[in-house]
């Protein structure tokens, strides 16, 4: 357990509305990531952060923005949700274990955009 | 182009059978990292193993074993004497070093759904 929580865990929203997903970690990890999981695609990186206020785009960043104003929180925002953003969203952190770095994932958020 | 290919979309076996999940990767980096994750029906992602590109030693952990072959760019996962609780989606992932982190982003395969029947 890498101390990662995601909120909300489930959300239903309508097309065109803004949505913010929160990832919270309690162990002061520097690196945080947002992925989305879709059938037939595995997980794909949306955005990641390598420190407070330091973020960068992943391979599927269009339509998403992120913010990290403090170490423990990494927010993912869908400015105007579309049906194609219906997905399961996973947050991850990088953790050093036995001198090796590994990504551990939060429990996920299921988002349905109607 | 897909960096990680898991050609087996679904596999079904009967309990106690051995099963191998295939993973083929593509990278130009000389330093990279390979992972396997398990996603049971409950939906969480569980880390199973990490392998560094400079360490080709195979690994065994209980009923699980991993075969890493750089010559064929493969990192296959074998479950010996499968059990119903092994039923899950298994993902192989690749990381190429990025910025100051030795890890960077993960590229996932599309996953293999393993069903173990009693």
Descriptive keywords:
heterodimer; A: 114 residues; seven-stranded mixed sheet; four-stranded antiparallel sheet; 11 strands; B: 118 residues; mainly beta; six-stranded mixed sheet; 12 strands
Descriptive report:
The complex is a heterodimer of chains A (114) and B (118). Chain A has strands at 4-7, 10-13, 19-25, 32-38, 42-51, 54-57, 64-70, 73-78, 87-97, 100-105, 109-113. Chain A is mainly β and 114 residues long. Helices cover 0% and strands 62% of the residues of chain A. In chain A, the strands form two sheets. In chain A, strands 2, 4, 5, 6, 9, 10 and 11 form a seven-stranded mixed sheet that branches. The model of chain B has no long low-confidence stretch (mean pLDDT 90). Chain B has 118 residues and is mainly β. In chain B, 0% of the residues lie in helices and 51% in strands. Chain B is built from no helices and twelve strands. Chain B is globular and about 45 Å long.
List the helices and strands and how they pair.
The complex is a heterodimer of chains A (114) and B (118).
Chain A lengths: L3 E4 L2 E4 L5 E7 L6 E7 L3 E10 L2 E4 L6 E7 L2 E6 L8 E11 L2 E6 L3 E5 L1
Parallel strand pairs in A: 2-11
Antiparallel strand pairs in A: 1-3, 3-8, 4-5, 4-9, 5-6, 7-8, 9-10, 9-11
Chain B lengths: L3 E2 L4 E5 L4 E3 L2 E2 L6 E8 L6 E7 L6 E3 L2 E6 L4 E6 L8 E9 L9 E3 L3 E6 L1
Parallel strand pairs in B: 2-12
Antiparallel strand pairs in B: 1-4, 3-9, 5-6, 5-10, 7-8, 8-9, 10-11, 10-12
């Amino acid at each position: 357990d890498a101390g990662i929580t995601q909120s909300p865990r489930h959300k239903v929203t309508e097309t065109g509305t803004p949505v913010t997903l929160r990832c919270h970690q309690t162990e002061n990890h520097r690196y945080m990531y947002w992925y989305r999981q879709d059938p037939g695609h595995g997980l794909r990186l949306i955005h990641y952060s390598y420190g407070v206020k330091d973020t960068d785009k992943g391979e599927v960043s269009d339509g998403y923005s992120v913010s990290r104003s403090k170490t423990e929180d990494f927010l993912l925002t869908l400015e105007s949700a579309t049906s194609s953003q219906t997905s399961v969203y996973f947050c991850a952190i990088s953790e050093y274990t036995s001198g090796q770095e590994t990504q551990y994932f939060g429990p996920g958020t299921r988002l349905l955009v109607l | 182009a897909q960096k990680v290919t898991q050609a087996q979309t679904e596999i079904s076996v009967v309990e106690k059978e051995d099963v191998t999940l295939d993973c083929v990767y593509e990278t130009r980096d000389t330093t990279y990292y390979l992972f396997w994750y398990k996603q049971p029906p409950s939906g969480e992602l569980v880390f199973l193993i990490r392998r560094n590109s400079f360490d080709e030693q195979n690994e065994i952990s209980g009923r699980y074993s991993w075969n890493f072959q750089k010559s064929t760019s493969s990192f296959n996962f074998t479950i010996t004497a499968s059990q119903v609780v092994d039923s899950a989606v298994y993902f192989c992932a690749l990381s190429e070093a990025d910025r100051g982190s030795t890890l960077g982003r993960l590229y996932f395969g599309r996953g293999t759904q393993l069903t173990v029947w009693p």
